[in-house]
Specification:
Helix content: 40-55%
Shape: elongated
Structural class: alpha+beta
Radius of gyration: 25 Å
Length: 406
């Protein structure tokens, strides 16, 4: 389970920045409501920034609002410093930690200046995040109200779980701890698979992953998912839970009992839990199921397998960039070009060219049904008018609202 440590500052932020970035120890930096110079992208596609005095920017904002002055005889709380330390057993990579830390900070401090600095200066070289939050709410100019520490920690654990970073909670009442998946990566490529790819050969594991990727992108539910995999020659069965292993599926090539692999061994995205969560969220497919079935019908022999792999790579690019529909694909390419992200633009243009050559039309974004609009309208009518607070009085907060950031 990851840990969250909070430190309160009563001074200017200059020394804190010097400490966090001295000697080039900062692996990367992220910013919210600040304007650092963009230097480009790192190898993982994440943004990198040039030299920037973010502490001076925070100090100037705080001084302009008068929020660095003592309050009722006490020194002002000028900044909060949160340290997010992932569980070493999760083996989290820096890009994954950056996404987690930024999402957590944006959830709790959307109206504050935030600088996030990443280190791995510990014995296990485990990356961790230092989140520095200025004390001034930008929209109103007042000092921020620090959220409940328990709520902050609880939300971090929830966000970790959403990303497949499951925890070993202490056992209570004789119950066993929740089992952990074999890998923490969304797409897991094993060493043997990488070596074969380096020699220009595809492994049967990569072949299964390509077919599962296509079925995952096109299916709207478990029955359709299994049907598409059957059409592509992949059998699905329940995996053993012996030894406390998590519930999962086994994917096997039809007629080859020895060529079988657990879903989460391919990566968390292909496991039973992640797929059922995807369908429960009613996420629209990237590509129509009929197109996958059409390709699968003629995917016989080496050429057919190559076609499936190429299509899976294109669909994977659409999934990574959240593209739904042809118009959205065009917009995503234009957006990538406008911000200078040539790698993303090239990846999406290659996907568009392949889909066009195959005569495949992308699935349109799922519109809200007329029935859904009618149901929503009926619920509003049944609920009656929304009560308004009397002038000069603050609306009462319900129990479910307590602990949330204002």
């Amino acid at each position: 389970m990851g840990e969250l440590k909070a430190i309160t500052g009563h001074t200017r932020a200059r020394r804190l920045q010097a400490y966090l970035e001295r000697g080039g120890r900062a692996l990367a930096r992220d910013f919210i409501n600040l304007a650092p110079p963009l230097a480009g992208e790192d190898a993982s596609g994440m943004p990198s920034y040039g030299e920037y005095r973010w502490a001076a920017a925070m100090d100037a904002t705080r001084e302009a609002a008068g929020n660095d002055l003592p309050w009722r005889g006490r020194a002002a709380r000028t900044w909060k410093h949160y340290v997010i330390s992932p569980d070493p057993r999760n083996a989290i990579a820096l890009p994954e930690l950056r996404e987690l830390a930024c999402s957590w900070a944006e959830r709790w401090f959307p109206d504050n200046e935030v600088a996030i600095v990443y280190h791995d200066d510990n014995p296990g070289r485990i990356p961790h995040a230092h989140v520095v939050v200025n004390n001034t709410c930008l929209s109103i100019g007042r000092r921020m109200q620090v959220p409940d520490p328990l709520a902050l920690n609880r939300s971090l654990q929830e966000m970790e779980a959403e990303r497949g970073l499951e925890h070993h909670h202490p056992t209570t009442g004789g119950k066993e701890a929740r089992p952990r998946p074999r890998t923490r990566q969304r797409v897991h490529v094993r060493r043997a698979e990488r070596e074969l790819a380096g020699r220009g050969r595809a492994s049967w594991v990569a072949d299964i992953r390509s077919r599962v990727e296509l079925a995952r992108a096109a299916a709207g539910g478990e029955a359709e998912f299994r049907s598409l995999l059957a059409a592509m020659g992949v059998e699905v069965s329940d995996a053993s839970t012996a030894g406390g292993r998590p519930r999962d599926w086994i994917y096997a090539l039809e007629g080859s009992a020895s060529r079988r692999v657990r879903g989460e061994s391919l990566g968390l995205d292909y496991g039973r839990g992640a797929l059922r969560a995807r369908w429960a969220a009613s996420r629209a497919p990237s590509i129509p199921a009929r197109e996958v079935a059409r390709i699968a019908a003629r995917a016989v022999g080496i050429e057919g397998e190559r076609e499936l792999r190429e299509l899976a790579e294109a669909v994977s690019a659409l999934e990574r960039h959240g593209v739904r529909g042809t118009a959205a694909l065009d917009r995503a390419i234009s957006s990538a070009l406008s911000r200078g992200d040539l790698a993303a633009a090239g990846e999406l243009e290659a996907a568009r060219a392949l889909l066009s050559a195959k005569g495949i039309e992308l699935a349109a974004p799922r519109p809200r049904s007329a029935r859904g609009r009618e149901d929503a309208s009926r619920r509003r009518e049944e609920a009656g008018p929304v009560p308004r607070a009397e002038p000069g009085r603050r609306p009462a907060r319900g129990r479910e609202d307590r602990g949330r950031p204002r």
